[in-house]
Design brief:
The protein has 412 residues and is of the alpha+beta class. The protein has a single domain, classed as Alpha-Beta Plaits, CATH 3.30.70.20. It is globular, with a radius of gyration of 22 Å. It has twelve helices and 19 strands. Strands 12-3-14-13 form a four-stranded mixed β-sheet. It binds iron/sulfur cluster (3 copies). One iron/sulfur cluster binds at residues 169-172, 175-177, 195, 212, 214, 216-217, 228, 301.
Length: 412
């Protein structure tokens, strides 16, 4: 194993390959406070890439209800349990530094009769089969498996909580799928960090399926090779006729009804650090405002999907899922400052890839207190530019007010 630097863990870690970083990296930010679980993203991906024979149980994008749901079932509970069993009581953070074992380090410790490069497991067919079973559905009165409530039910009032977690491949900096492949069939593109499976090299050994801690590589029995999210790379390359050569956000991002998603490409230095790009919206959200956090950073793959944690969920649960930055991220989101409020308006205002924003200050609208802290709302305008410096969208903090002319009234 080589030693590579993982900035999400604030330390070096073991990885089977030397460090090589792309010039730019595919990155997305999801605001989980806004996901309504409508599955439009899921269907946008399915109807584009996985509608064929052998892909029936393949959901490159899925949305699961936490804490109960998972696709494949219990994927995160299982891998967390395996890590805990390998390193009992040691899966901890010391400040911003992860002192436990990643899936690569746990595999080193776990060497048995057959050495593994990555700690993982192969989900069963049944675990893949029901992407949302029992999540939002009333089950049979006695909780019988595979039986639905016959009369329907009225939901009780309760103090419990849940949230929707939308997921796709994280196009990791240190992909576990790539590390585990004995055929070197998986590669990371130098131009955008997208992780792809070379279908001509893959022999369907499913080592990647076993290794990916997020379970985002999927075996296709009809072709006997593995497939995964391709980050809609023709759109990233500007090959969609709609944009005439301009890069465009992916299908699942562009279709998001809840407007929770923002996706783009961030510049990466040769040492793997994000190049400072102060007015890039993704750089701002992840590195400056620190409101968006990686999913299970302790796995060690340095995932490039970032989440704004849901503010109503118990902090211990969130800290296990998103690491030590949760308190800071929720505080920043609950009482957003002027710049954050403006940048949040950019989510889903365009399907073009934004590389820079600018804020033009507007008038004060009102002031109040939130959590005992002063909060002031300004009706600022935020302007987004593409990589050539061309304006692609402008919007403002206050929703514009439209009055429908008389001619259209009562015509529904
Ligand atoms: S999420 Fe899984 S499939 Fe995607 S790059 Fe990371 S390890 Fe590979
Ligand atoms: S980026 Fe494209 S391929 Fe990947 S999950 Fe979204 S729609 Fe599917
Ligand atoms: S389309 Fe957006 S709001 Fe709907 S489930 Fe997907 S991520 Fe959530």
């Amino acid at each position: 194993m080589k030693q590579v630097y993982n900035w999400q863990l604030n330390r070096k870690m073991s990885y089977p390959h030397e460090e090589h970083h792309p010039g730019r990296q595919f990155v997305f930010v999801f605001n989980l406070n806004r996901c309504i679980g409508c599955q439009t993203c899921t269907m946008a991906c399915k109807s584009t890439w996985t509608f064929s024979k052998g892909q029936e149980y393949m959901w490159w994008n899925n949305v699961e209800t936490k804490p109960y749901g998972g696709y494949p079932q219990n994927w995160d509970v299982k891998i967390l349990k395996m890590l805990e069993e390998t390193n009992r009581g040691g899966q901890k953070w010391n400040g911003q530094t992860f002192t436990g074992k990643t899936i690569f380090e746990a595999a080193e410790k776990n060497i048995g009769s057959v050495p593994q490069r990555v700690l993982g497991y192969l989900p069963t067919d049944e675990e893949w089969r029901f992407p949302n079973l029992y999540e939002d559905s009333p089950i049979h009165k006695n909780g019988d498996r595979n039986a639905f409530h016959k009369e329907g039910t009225q939901l009780p009032e309760h103090k419990t909580w849940f949230f929707y977690l939308a997921r796709l491949c994280n196009h990791c900096t240190y992909p576990a799928c790539l590390a585990a492949c004995p055929r070197n069939a998986i590669y990371k593109r130098p131009e955008d960090g997208v992780v792809l499976v070379d279908q001509s090299r893959c022999r369907g050994y499913r080592k990647c399926v076993e290794a990916c801690p997020y379970k985002k590589t999927m075996y296709r029995p009809s072709t006997r090779v593995t497939e995964k999210c391709i980050a809609c790379y023709p759109r990233l390359e500007g090959k969609d006729p709609e944009t005439k050569g301009e890069p465009m956000e992916t299908r699942c991002m562009a279709s998001c009804i809840g407007q929770i998603r923002l996706q783009g490409l961030v510049k990466i230095a040769p040492d793997g650090q994000w190049v400072e790009d102060r007015y890039h919206p993704l750089y701002y959200l992840v590195k400056v405002a620190k409101v968006a956090l990686p999913l299970y950073p302790q796995f060690g793959t340095e995932p490039n999907g970032y989440y704004m944690p849901p503010r109503w969920v118990p902090r211990n649960f969130l800290k296990q899922m998103f690491g030590p930055g949760v308190d800071q991220a929720i505080d920043a989101y609950r009482v957003p400052d002027r710049e954050l409020l403006a940048v949040l308006q950019l989510f889903r205002k365009t399907n073009r890839i934004i590389t820079r924003y600018e804020i033009k200050e507007g008038p004060k609208v009102y002031e109040t207190e939130i959590d005992g802290k002063p909060f002031t709302l300004y009706n600022d305008t935020v302007i987004a530019y593409n990589e050539h410096g061309k304006e692609i969208v402008r919007t403002q903090v206050e929703e514009p007010f439209y009055v429908r002319p008389n001619i259209h009234q009562n015509t529904i």
